[in-house]
């Protein structure tokens, strides 16, 4: 198995995608944040000191997706066609689902995963004054289509 981000001198490199075809690419990622019941209630009722937590997390997630190439060293800077963020209630917290789209030569999984991560971190940041025991977990790729590797769907 060849390592694509290592050159012949074994130094890191960014993969050259110049010869790849432009394709429509879609990726969906998800992750969860677990918390105390009182914390979840405070977030739902917008009773935290920092305001509208879930709406802020959505905006932060979108912003995070747009900054992915600045955060992940070997990630290409790509044009993002769109990002859609959904937050679902789960029994002991919230689940963020991010779907990102591009028409490009590479990418979009990392943008979806970064969106989820930043959204979850924003919830933590905005509610940590009332619950420092929150746990972020299960950040994962759910679906990806487009590009040479084809379609992936988590079973």
TrEMBL record:
Pathway: Cofactor biosynthesis; molybdopterin biosynthesis. The keyword Lyase applies. Its EC number is 4.6.1.17. InterPro entries: MoaC, MoaC_bact/euk, MoaC_sf, MoCo_biosynth_MoaA/MoaC, Mopterin_CF_biosynth-C_dom. GO terms for biological process: Mo-molybdopterin cofactor biosynthetic process. Substrate binds at residues 74-76, 110-111. One of its GO terms (molecular function) is cyclic pyranopterin monophosphate synthase activity. The active site is at residue 125. It catalyses: (8S)-3',8-cyclo-7,8-dihydroguanosine 5'-triphosphate = cyclic pyranopterin phosphate + diphosphate. The keyword Lyase applies. Belongs to the MoaC family. Homohexamer; trimer of dimers. This is Cyclic pyranopterin monophosphate synthase. It comes from Nautilia profundicola (strain ATCC BAA-1463 / DSM 18972 / AmH).
């Amino acid at each position: 198995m060849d390592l694509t981000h290592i050159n012949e001198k074994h130094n890191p490199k960014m993969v050259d995608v110049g010869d790849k075809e432009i394709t429509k690419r879609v990726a969906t990622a998800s992750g969860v944040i677990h918390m105390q019941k009182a914390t979840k209630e405070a977030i739902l009722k917008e009773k935290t000191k920092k305001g509208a937590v879930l709406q802020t997390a959505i905006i932060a997630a979108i912003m995070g997706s747009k900054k992915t190439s600045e955060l992940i060293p070997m990630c290409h800077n790509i044009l993002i066609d769109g990002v859609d963020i959904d937050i679902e209630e789960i029994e002991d917290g919230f689940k963020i689902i991010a779907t990102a789209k591009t028409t490009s030569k590479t990418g979009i999984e990392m943008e979806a995963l970064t969106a989820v991560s930043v959204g979850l971190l924003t919830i933590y940041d905005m509610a940590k004054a009332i619950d420092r025991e929150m746990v972020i977990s299960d950040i994962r790729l759910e679906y990806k289509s487009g590009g040479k590797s084809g379609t992936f769907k988590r079973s």
